[in-house]
């Protein structure tokens, strides 16, 4: 009996001795786990990056679409033969164009050669709840502004697209220059300035003269002072919250043009 018990214990000892994993098996098992978890993490990270890219694209496309639609709608309401107003006391060029684009000397808030447009439009006044609305004909300016309080933590400089609006005063229908100056001062006292987009990297305009079949970089200071451009090209570069930059370009007609 004792011999049987001894043999049984010996067999159990031998079984336990060889029942574990070898060092090579442990290393292989750990290596496989590392590969599996590494692949899973890589796939997860790729999905997160893809989602972020898609979110950035949607964000920038939405902003660009809003800006372009708004500019397109208002530019189609632009009126010819109405003279651009300049602020009281501001020494503007002698010309009095009906549309100004990228021409220096017409807006004291435009500096450094930044692109801008100013035009007269009918029934394009902006409604803001709780504030007075400019009805009828208004003068609209789109320009770039740099706000030092609205800057990114990564150091990439961003700009703001600003819209200016004020009631239009027609110098041709004013009986005296003194009355016009008073009306002009009153109009500028009612100027409305508000941001349209605050994640702008760059904004450029070009203008098409259909009569001459040529694109030009500015408008209102040459022989085109009394006419509207037939087309305007927008070139907008926006940046997302995750520093993705996207460029959007389009061409829209101005006023009641039938170029198309």
Structural description of this entry:
- The protein is of the alpha+beta class.
- It is 32% helix and 25% strand.
- The chain has helices at 2-17, 23-75, 177-189; strands at residues 99-101, 117-122, 137-145, 159-167, 192-209, 214-216, 231-239, 245-253.
- Strands 1, 2, 3, 4, 5, 6, 7 and 8 form an 8-stranded antiparallel beta sheet that branches.
Give the biggest sheet.
8 strands, antiparallel
Distance between the termini: 110 Å
Mean pLDDT across residues: 80
Count of DSSP H/I helices: 3
Task: Provide the β-strand percentage band.
Answer: 25-35%
The global form is: elongated
Helix content: 25-40%
Question: Radius of gyration, Cα only, in angstroms?
Answer: 34 Å
Which structural category fits the helices and strands? alpha+beta
The run of helices and strands is HHEEEEHEEEE
Question: Total number of β-strand segments?
Answer: 8
| Contiguous uncertain segments of 5+ residues | none
In terms of topology, how is this protein built?
Blueprint: H1 2-17, H2 23-75, E1 99-101, E2 117-122, E3 137-145, E4 159-167, H3 177-189, E5 192-209, E6 214-216, E7 231-239, E8 245-253
Antiparallel strand pairs: 1-2, 2-3, 3-4, 4-5, 5-6, 5-7, 7-8
